[in-house]
Automatic annotation (TrEMBL):
The protein's name in its UniProt record: Glycogen debranching protein
Annotated GO biological process: carbohydrate metabolic process
Coiled-coil segments on the chain, per record: none
A Pfam family hit: GDE_N_bis
Domain Putative glycogen debranching enzyme N-terminal: 3-164
Length: 622
């Protein structure tokens, strides 16, 4: 890491280390290889010619293994025939800047270091960071940001130095040990398409690598947003990923909900009941949105659906008050109006936010009714009012059949650009008895949206673009302005399949699988939205997390959507609505989890689904 551009180690969007350069005998090794050896580890290899009589071949190999938990191990391997005494220097630095500031070129210079313990420490108004070394360095020069050792290498021998990065006053980047019990079922996907098996395996591996343990309540787990840019929790991403991975079990959902319930705002004021979250850039057409709004609306949805998948009664009951607070915040914030602004109180009325709010109201009402709590009828009444108003205000008629507005300004002016956020209109949520909640669009407009999402402007051939090609400000590398975002692609696949638009769902799924294959089945958070052509491969995005929690979870959602699993564990039933066109041929999903027990399903080439393993007493609804 040289500190140039976006290089660095990030924690929750802040660069806690920007520079880590190794010099051996006064020279940088010649880089020969860099590759990911696991979801959370990268191996770099360089070589040096040190001995003057060694001939043309390198006689020292420098191996660097960097992990997402902030540990880097530097190992020197000697092939020299005699003892080598080598000075080894590690030059370190950081600016503690936010990713957005760095990406816009507005970052300041590096901070001054101080000697700290067996390493260096940096402090500033934006945070603190420290690197410690083992063995302790022979010299630590704060003014130069330099750690130095004198190492002896026997012929054929090795010596190692370990660096540990830790942002001060922060929990561990990755607290879950490799030997810890996984919250995910050992799911496998097999079938006619050879890509499904490595994709699901890699998605589960990525999710496991991103797990964080709550330092105060170590039994509770949640997911870091991704590496390398966001090696920390992000509430909206954690909830979305936990929801998409419910077929792998409910333990992650329960832990994520408990962790975030402890962050819920209390006391007087309009923000009471909200799950706090940072602002997020929304592209060129809209101001930044509040991820706290999305997280607050996702909380009751995840609890309601986790209950249907088999979250234990005791856990569900304990989390109900936090869900009620989220729903109370929703109704209080909407007040006498119809729409939910984002951010509050004067933000635009985003299409995506209304979809999240409508789903939260309906699933929240179902949850409240099930547990004998009050408030369900009022939420349903408001949801019905929102549906009527949305159909009138948000749908823009045009000769091609119309489209949903991306947002309404506060004076009621629709913003007509089409983006991937519209896919959330298809994600209506799971109610009891295997039924899906109604959405904000009627059947005809759902069909029109399916045509738009499956058309060439939105479907790049690799997945769903964040903004349609041809729209003003379209940029294939714009992270909200045209890049393919894997999460929205999976949401569209599942939503289109559930609504019966299998052709469009199959097209997006095929592109997603092709992209996964090009990325060695480790899906990045996003990649360029350039059109797919014969012989082309998707272009990586320079600021994408890989692995990313939502991308790995999206792979799980897209594959399990083929079986259309709709459980109702509290009443002991499951409904299957498979994709009848069987776009991948036969697919067998084994080792899923339903009501805490193994669950397996096979979808044949004719699109018929068969349960092959299920909890005792579970009944199949038709």
């Amino acid at each position: 890491m040289t500190g140039s551009g976006l290089e660095g180690f990030y924690r929750a969007g802040r660069r806690v280390l920007s520079r880590c350069q190794v010099r051996v005998a006064g020279r940088e090794p010649v880089a020969v290889q860099a590759r990911m050896v696991a979801a959370d580890r990268v191996r770099f290899v360089g070589t040096l010619r040190v001995a003057p009589d060694a001939g043309p071949d390198p006689d020292v190999v420098v191996e660097r293994i960097r992990s997402a938990d902030g540990i880097e191990r530097i190992t020197l391997h000697s092939a020299a025939p005699r003892l080598l005494r080598l000075p080894v220097e590690v030059s370190l630095g950081t600016d503690l800047e936010e990713l957005g500031t760095i990406a816009s070129g507005a970052a300041g210079g590096e901070l001054s270091a101080t000697v700290h313990d067996s390493g260096l420490r940096w402090s500033g108004p934006k945070g603190d960071s420290a690197v410690t070394a083992a063995p302790p360095p022979t010299d630590a020069l704060a003014s130069a940001g330099l750690l130095r050792w004198e190492l002896e290498l026997l012929p054929g021998g090795t010596r190692s130095v370990e660096l540990r990065l830790r942002p001060d006053r922060a929990g561990p980047v990755r607290a879950l040990g490799r030997g810890a019990t996984s919250p995910f079922a050992p799911a496998l996907a097999t079938g006619d398409d050879p890509r499904v098996q490595p994709l699901l395996r890699t998605c589960v591996e990525d999710l496991q690598a991103l797990l964080l343990r709550d330092p105060v309540h170590p039994a509770d787990l949640q997911l870091a947003a991704g590496a390398p840019w966001r090696c920390g929790p992000a509430p909206a991403d954690s909830l979305a990923a936990a929801r998409m991975t419910l077929p792998l079990g409910t333990r992650l959902a329960g832990g994520t909900l408990r962790i975030l319930a402890r962050t819920q705002l209390t006391g007087p004021g309009l923000r009471s009941g909200m799950i706090p979250g940072p602002r997020r850039d929304a592209g060129a057409h809209l101001p930044p949105g509040c991820t706290g709004t999305e997280a607050t609306l996702l909380f009751p949805v995840l609890l309601a659906e986790a209950w249907r998948w088999g979250l234990p009664e005791r856990e569900t009951r304990e989390l109900l008050p936090a869900a009620e607070n989220c729903l109370r915040w929703l109704r209080t914030t909407v007040g006498d109006g119809v729409y939910l602004p984002d951010p509050q109180p004067d933000g635009p009325l985003r299409c995506e936010t209304q979809a999240h709010a409508h789903r939260a109201a309906l699933l929240g009402a179902d949850l409240l009714d099930t547990w004998g709590r009050s408030g369900g009828p009022e939420l349903r009444e408001w949801a019905e009012e929102l549906r009527r108003a949305f159909g009138k205000d948000f749908w823009i008629e045009d000769p091609s059949g119309g489209r949903p507005a991306a947002a309404l300004t506060r004076d009621g002016r629709p913003l007509p650009h089409l983006g991937a956020g519209a896919a959330h209109l298809l994600d209506t949520g799971l109610l009891g008895s295997g039924t899906l909640a109604p959405g904000l669009l009627d059947k005809a407009r759902t069909e029109q949206l399916a045509r738009l999402l499956g058309g060439p402007a939105m479907d790049s051939g690799w997945g769903l673009r964040g903004l349609g090609a041809g729209e003003a400000a379209y940029n294939p590398f714009g992270h909200r302005g045209g890049a393919v975002r894997v999460q929205e692609t999976a949401v569209a696949v599942a939503g289109l399949a559930a609504a019966g638009h299998e052709k469009e769902a199959s097209g997006l799924l095929g592109g997603m699988l092709a992209a996964a294959e090009a990325f060695d089945h480790r899906l990045p958070e996003m990649f360029a939205g350039e059109p797919r052509t014969d012989g082309s491969t998707p272009a990586p995005h320079p600021a994408a997390c890989r692995p990313a929690a939502t991308a790995a979870a999206a792979g799980v959602q897209a594959l399990t959507a083929l079986a259309g699993i709709r459980p109702d564990a509290p009443v002991g039933t499951v409904t299957l609505r498979p994709v009848r066109s069987a776009p991948l041929g036969e697919i067998v999903l084994t080792g899923l989890r339903l009501a805490g027990a193994p669950f397996s399903v096979r979808v044949g080439r004719l699109g018929l689904a068969m349960v092959e393993q299920a909890p005792e007493g579970l009944q199949l609804r038709v």
